[in-house]
Design brief:
This protein has about 160 residues and is of the alpha+beta class. The protein has one domain: Trafficking protein particle complex subunit 3 (Muramoyl-pentapeptide Carboxypeptidase, domain 2, 2-Layer Sandwich), CATH 3.30.1380.20. A four-stranded antiparallel beta sheet has the order 1-2-4-3. Strand 3 and strand 4 form a beta hairpin. Helix 3 runs antiparallel to helix 5.
């Protein structure tokens, strides 16, 4: 008889297509509530990912440099090549361009933005770095005929 281990693997992997199908099912079955769930999943994942990276770096690094380290690592994971366009935490504004976005084909197919997960992920990163909540403000999207996909988040400064 074998013993079962109660350990969780560090990583699991499946294709981008399968991940997109999971997200598509959430939206199809739950509508805007599904979009909110996807955003929250991304936000929590972004916070956790950032916490792990911060443990490796000098916390005295400039905030923008830390943000770029994190999005460069995320880019290496294949979600999208993330390029920082604007980073102004004093004004509460962050904008990231997503090049080679895994959601591009789905956006074009459905004629609507599908980057809810990445919106949340970036929001989680900035929350972990600044301890401020950022919310989605606007985007450019392939689905709208824009040449780039970008996400702009603004801080809840209340």
């Amino acid at each position: 008889m074998s013993e079962h281990q109660n350990t969780i693997p560090n990583r699991i992997s499946f294709s981008a297509e399968n991940f997109l199908k999971i997200l598509e099912n959430l939206v199809n079955n739950f509508g805007s509530a599904g979009e909110s769930m996807i955003f929250q999943m991304g936000r929590d994942a972004g916070k956790q990912y950032t916490t792990g990276i911060l443990s490796e770096f000098n916390k005295e690094m400039e905030l923008q440099a830390l943000f770029e380290v994190v999005i460069n690592r995320v880019s290496g994971d294949g979600w999208a090549n993330m390029v920082l366009k604007e980073f102004d935490p004093q004004r509460g504004s962050v904008e990231v361009i997503l090049v080679d976005n895994v959601f591009e084909a789905m956006c074009l197919k459905l004629h609507m933005p599908q980057c809810f997960f990445l919106r949340g992920y970036i929001s989680g990163i900035i929350k972990e770095l600044t301890n401020m909540d950022y919310r989605f403000f606007s985007s450019q999207c392939y689905a709208n005929g824009d040449k780039d996909c970008s996400i702009r988040l603004i801080a809840d400064l209340d």
